[in-house]
Each structure stands twice: as C-alpha cells, then as structure tokens.
Specification:
The protein is mostly beta strands and about 500 residues long. It is built from 6 helices and 21 strands.
Amino acid sequence: MSFRALWIISHEKGENASVRFSRRFPTVEHRAKRLAGSSYVAVPEDGTVLQLILLELGLSSPNKTYVALRDDCLYRPRSPALELRLDGKETLWPVLSVSQGSLILACLPLVDVPSEPRPPLASLLSVSQGLTFLAGLQTFLLGSGTKPDGAGLASSLAMLPSVLLQVCPLGTPLDVPLVGVPTAPTVATSAGSQKQPAWKTGLHRGRAMVNVAVVETVRSMQYGNQSSQDSWDVYGTVTCKCEVEGVLPNVTVTLSLPQNGSPLQDILVHPCVTSLDSSVLAASSVDNVDGSAFSGPYKFPFSPPLEPFRLCSYTSQVPVPPIFGSYQLKEEENQLCVFASLKLHETVKNTFEYCEAHLPFFNRSQMGNADLKVSSGQVDVMKEKNLLVWALGQKFPKSREVTLDAKISFSGLSPGPSDPLCTGLTAYIKLYFKVPDMTLSGCCVDQHSVQVYSSAKPRIVTSRELLSSEYFIWNSTGTAPVSNGQVMV
C-alpha cells in the first residue's frame, strides 16, 4: 500500500481553515497514472482539496445544513472514503480522513484495481491500512491529549518531514506486509536475532497482558406504519492492547459466533495482521444479501504495535433490532397527547449499564405544564430545551415492555429549539443504551482462544458490549423522513 498524497488541515468550527502540512509522492503518482490509464485523475492543488474536504465533512457552511451536491438522495457516500468531485465529471476517490477537534488528517491511497465499476471498500486493503496510518499519525501529532496543543502541534509538524522519511519512504509505510512475503513464524523467536522495525519505537518491559474488546453498535429507524419499512444495521470493532515482550511477538485472536449467529461481513483489518483467508475479506453485505457468508471462526494472527489499536471492524445483518418502539402524537386543545411504548426483544440481555429515551419537541413555544405517567423508570422534564428524558434504569420490567403517557402544553413566552425537519407532527424518540457482556451478532472472543507466542505467559482479558447510535423511533401519526434512494417523503 502506498500514498499518492497526504494532508493535515486545521480549522476553527469550519472557519480559518488552512493546510498545515501536505506531501505528495511523485513515484506513487506515476504508478497511479499508469494503472488508471485514460481514467486517471490528477491530484488538484492544496487549496482545492481543502475546500472539497470541508464541503464533504459539512464544515464549509456550518449554517447551511443541506447542500445538494453532498446531501442529495442520489448521492450515496461510502464512509470513511470521501469522494471529492472536481470540475466536470472527474472525481477523486477514495480520500480517507480522520478528525480530532479542529484537526483533520486526510490521505489519498493508491488503489491498484480498476476504479470502474467501483470496488467495494471491504475488498480494498489500502483503505484499512490508510486509516490505520492516519490513526498512528494522529497519535504522533496529539500525543495522549484529545485537543491540538498549539506549541506541541507546531513542534510535531516541524518533525514530520523527517519522520515520514523514516516510516513512509517514497510514500510506502514500512509496517505494511508486502505481497508475496512469507508471514511471520508462529513460534517465539529470540529478540537478539530480530531487527527492530522502524515503525516500532520501543519494546515492552514488565508484566505481559493482552486485552481484547468487542464493541458492537446498532442503528435503527422505526416508523410504525406499513408505508415505511423499518431498518437497522450493526457494525462492530475489535480493539486490542498487547503488552508483550519481544521485538515481533506473535498473537492470534479468534472471533467466534454461536450456531445461529449472523455471519460477519465487510471486514477491514489492521496492517499488522500477517495472514487472512481471502474469503473473509470478500464477504460483503452488498453482495451477500441472503446472508450466505463465512460464519467463522475468524482467526487473526498479528504482530501487535505497542499502542492500543483496532484489530478489525465488521458489519452484521441481524434479524431484529434489540428494542422495538411505538410513538404516537396528537394535538388536542392546544396541547400534545403523547404515547410511547418500548419493548425489549426476548433475545437481548435485560441488563443495561444505562438506557434513556429522549423525546424532543421542536418549533414550538417553550414547554409549560406536563402531565406524565410511566409504567417504569422516571422522566426529567427539561422545559428550556422542550425535552423529556425518560430514564429506564438498568432493567426492563418482567414483561420487557414499558409505556409513557403524557399531555404537554406549550405556553411559554419564549420560543423553544427549532429544527427544519421536525415541523408539525414530525417528531421522534431517540434511544441511548449500553448493554455489557453482549453483542447482537453473538460475536465474542474466548480467553482460551487467544494464543500468544512469547517467553512470558500473559494475562488475557476479553470483553464485549452493545451500544446504540442514531436509534430513532418516529411518530407514526405524522410524516417521517424516509429515503428510498430517489425521493424524500
């Protein structure tokens, strides 16, 4: 894997944006030109790249929430790979980006397969390797902090040219396994006979430990009527922290599924993975709509870096969402009649670290009286935000179903929050929850399946959890934003 170009951008909430650092690699660009032939698209000037990246990330016009070129239903973004549309019909793809506060790191990896028809991201190893490189670069620039420090960032940027010369000579990172090179041996090798790679800046000394965490995130759109089909999806990440002695220790992590578990698809792996069955990488949710994919076990042999890293990410097509919801709003005599019910699916573990339902009301006067009745949990009325926060606690009741019934008036003199989408009876419930020791796909890592080839026996810790993200339940008595790829209803 090689890079055609690299950019580091800073901005202040979309303003005063500038390219703080950029690097182009002519030898890689020459290869890109030969590979693409007549479909070759040159990398534009930094100023043009800056404006296009800000546009794609929604930072060029913070007050303009809809941009046709970016938000039209006919355009299907394939995150995390941005598509920069240049003048005419030319596009630059895939431009990878990661953001941290006011700092944006972006790169254009070399894609050595035909761009038309566009290959799925899951089949491009350069995508996962490019994102991993950006994550490492982000750690170098920011250190352990979460916000860019002015003096520290300037110092790191001054050192960056010499660092890139060592770890990424001629645009090719040194920690990327080359095609055709044998994989690392699966037995321990004495450190004295191994040469320390340039990308590994030190060695671990002390107690050995391997920590593997599986986190699945579920998204859902539920509408409560036959005219709009409910949708949900699950994506997971496996992160590792390996404190193991040796220059190039070998670790193997195995992901397993239950017999009725949903196969893992769209798998992207860290560059440190030394070998992997091609059928695992080829399993795509786009191509395998019937779910006929490799069902494991999934073995990932690798030589870990010192810092925590994402071993792999994946998607899974689960048959049902964890929580079904129903939401009805009616306007009667200058007040809103609210009814909501939530039901936990029988296959989901009834133990939450937290579970909350937020019911916002937009484009109305400030909330006045609220007559509330809930079957479980408690409701916090935030009048200044026109928001009900329904805290369900750590368990659903035995019936696994909870309800909320309310009558709310909006008699305040000052206006409440506004939203151009939620007008009239267009409203939603947004769920926030976390379920420890569970994944919807059933994916898990058994402690005994983690193999470490090292002189010291490590302590092995594994965990898994389920998180919600963008989990919406729309009012079934009003219109809802449903996209079928052509129109917005």
